[in-house]
Design a protein that fits this description.
The complex is a heterodimer of chains A (386) and B (235). Chain A has 14 helices and 12 strands. Chain A is an alpha+beta fold. In chain A, helix 2 packs across helix 11 (293-330) and helix 9 packs parallel to helix 13 (349-375). In chain B, helix 3 crosses helix 4 (126-139) and helix 3 runs parallel beside helix 5. Chain B has one domain (34-59, 77-234): Rossmann fold. By secondary structure, chain B is an alpha/beta fold. Classes of the chains: A alpha+beta (386), B alpha/beta (235).
């Protein structure tokens, strides 16, 4: 005989009530696990996508941003481009991926079309492109064109057609799938071919810089300006907007999870208060036999803790099932639809451990009031009830 | 001359206040000697149970003192009273008050567990304690029912389990509130025989009864009328 036997027997006396209370706690914790893991998955995926959107920093010729405003008014040309030697310095920095490109324009069938010279391999990986038809550049000197889906649609172009750039007839070798970005309305050439056609050897228009750790964005920006004679535009604002959206989604999910948990906690309080009411006479008997108030208190707290422990374990199983069976479907919405990959729920061991600990803690807190009510009964008062 | 075990001095118990005041026990004084058998008799609602609860430290008196083993019960806090109940006092109730979800043996073990500080001594002294409890069940003639739940036992058997439970901590005094009040005549005779045996072996018994037959088994009768000690008769 020990306190665990007494507690366990007490719990199992009303099997139906025990099972339903446990189900309440389990479902509440399952909601917590499911929403938390789905939220974490979404967060993780969006952060990844934010990085995959392209550059975190754009390196421009010095004074370019301010000059652009003037050039719009005066019609002057953009300032000097960036020399490749500066690009090489930037590319040597650790923790970043720097991709230079040359931004030009051409007229195709009397309409202006942006022509972008790209380092073909890096750009393919950075923008996670895919081809709707045709094939991609074979080498940096490939004198051909890959066009965005919007251009293809606008001019009814397909692989094999010719595309005229500054007097040069170049074959279209591939058409990109729709990206929903400005890439859809541009024509892409390799960087060296573009430099050759536009006669701007060893010069690029911009350098896009992808920072591996977004928290280092500011430091990288400063470092680039320190080592090279260039200006840096940050998309920090975009990143913080995305993170703010993720934060809001996460908060909403946490709020829903909190409601589930609170409902479970009130379920425990209700069950234990009923148990205290039903067992008043037994509480009196225990006191008559020498039971301390602390012993009575402990039996109810342990009962409550067992609800928390078992409910937490059930919650993990149910929550994990819900997360992986229904999570992907739950995560499909207009916001996530814009992502390039389907978000997958993120479940880690610490989340599971914290869930069980939270469940136990919550149950114990929920059990405090019923346990206090039980412990404060006087033996005579308690035994008066038949 | 026997040793004085309990002194009851001027005990009063009042419920309510002012106009609703009820005097349940009124200035009652008497002594209990070790090894004695005292019956408290009187009509229902005249303060017998209240007096017994005060004597057992389950309730507190409004006035007066009870000394048990040199301890003044009115000066003890709730924790000390609980310890006193665990160590010095055994209770037997009219309705047995066994815990229905524990077996007969577990009901008998229960006070042993409660008497230990469970935080420090989570485990009982296993075999020894169980043997002691089984021996007690054997003493009350129920060794073969050790693993039965109370619901499968007769009233007399349940009361005998309750007596074994009251004895397990080897208390100085057994306080019994109408222990035969819910038994048939055969069970009553069995239980009375058990009381006689316990008393012969040195146990101090105090019981409340309505039955003059039961009261006559005791060596002393104390009659309470309107909460006052009205008559004291020694056999």
């Amino acid at each position: 005989m020990n306190i665990w036997i007494l507690v366990w027997r007490n719990l199992l006396r009303r099997k139906g009530r025990f099972i339903f209370t446990l189900a309440g706690v389990g479902i509440g914790m399952a909601a917590f696990v499911a929403l938390l893991t789905i939220g974490q998955g979404l967060n993780h995926q969006i952060q990844q996508q934010a990085q995959g959107l392209g550059a975190n920093l754009v390196v421009t010729p010095k004074g370019w941003c301010a000059y652009e405003q003037i050039s719009v008014l005066t019609g002057e040309q953009l300032p000097e481009a960036i020399p490749m030697k500066e690009v090489i310095k930037i590319q040597a920095l650790p923790g970043i991926k720097a991709i230079p490109f040359l931004n030009e324009r051409t007229a195709f069938r009397n309409r202006p079309v942006p022509v972008i010279g790209i380092p073909e391999v890096e750009m393919w990986a950075l923008h996670q492109w895919s081809l709707a038809s045709g094939h991609y550049f074979k080498d940096p000197n490939d004198k051909s064109v890959v066009i965005g889906s919007g251009i293809a649609q606008q001019f009814d172009l397909k692989p094999g057609d010719q595309f005229r750039v500054r007097g040069h007839q170049l074959p279209i070798i591939g058409i990109l799938n729709e990206t929903g970005t400005k890439d859809d309305v541009a024509a892409f050439l390799t960087l060296s071919v573009t430099q050759s056609i536009y006669d701007v050897k060893d010069m690029v228009s911009f350098v896009t810089v992808q920072v591996e750790d977004l928290s280092h964005l500011e430091a990288v920006s400063l470092k680039i300006q320190e080592i090279a004679n260039v200006a840096v535009v940050s998309d920090k604002q975009l990143v913080s907007s995305i993170l703010a959206i993720v934060g809001s989604v996460g908060s909403a999910m946490q709020a829903v999870a909190a409601v589930g948990i609170l409902a479970a906690a009130f379920g425990i309080i209700n069950t234990l208060l009923t148990a205290v009411y039903e067992r008043r006479r037994e509480i009196g008997i225990l006191q008559a036999l020498g039971g301390q108030h602390s012993t009575i208190f402990a039996t109810f707290i342990l009962e409550s803790g067992i609800y928390g422990l078992l409910g937490g374990i059930i919650g993990i199983f149910l929550g994990t099932l819900v997360t992986f069976w229904f999570g992907p479907a739950l995560m499909e919405n207009p916001f996530t639809a814009s992502l390039q990959q389907n978000p997958i729920p993120s479940l880690d061991m610490m989340t599971l451990i914290y869930t069980v600990l939270l469940s136990i803690l919550l149950a114990i807190v929920a059990g405090l009031y019923p346990a206090y009510r039980a412990a404060k009964l006087s033996p005579v008062e308690a035994m008066r009830y038949a | 001359m026997r040793e004085l075990l309990m002194e009851i001095q001027g005990i009063s118990k009042t419920y309510g206040s002012d106009s609703n005041k009820v005097q349940a026990v009124d200035n009652v004084s008497f002594d209990i000697e070790r090894g004695s058998w005292t019956a408290i008799v009187g009509p229902s609602g005249h303060g017998k149970s209240t007096l017994l609860q005060i004597m057992g430290g389950l309730d507190r008196s409004s006035a007066g003192t009870i000394i048990l083993d040199d301890k003044n019960l009115s000066q003890l806090n709730n924790r000390q009273l609980a310890q006193l109940r665990a160590n010095k006092i055994g209770f037997v109730f009219q309705f047995f008050n066994l815990l229905p979800h524990l077996t007969a043996l577990e009901n008998v073990v229960l006070p042993l567990w409660l008497n230990k500080k469970w935080l420090n001594e989570k485990r009982l002294n296993g075999k020894k304690d169980l043997q002691k409890c089984l021996a007690l069940l054997e003493r009350v003639g129920l060794a073969d029912k050790a693993n039965n739940l109370p619901s499968t036992l007769s009233g007399g058997q349940q009361q005998r389990v309750a007596i074994a439970r009251a004895l397990v901590n080897e208390p100085d005094i057994l306080l019994m509130d109408e222990p035969t009040g819910n038994l048939d005549s055969v069970s009553e005779a069995d239980v009375l025989a058990l009381f006689k045996e316990l008393n012969d072996q040195g146990s101090t018994l105090v019981l409340i009864t309505h039955s003059s037959a039961v009261a006559s088994c005791a060596e002393r009768e104390i009659e309470l009328i309107d909460g006052r000690l009205c008559k004291e008769v020694s056999a």
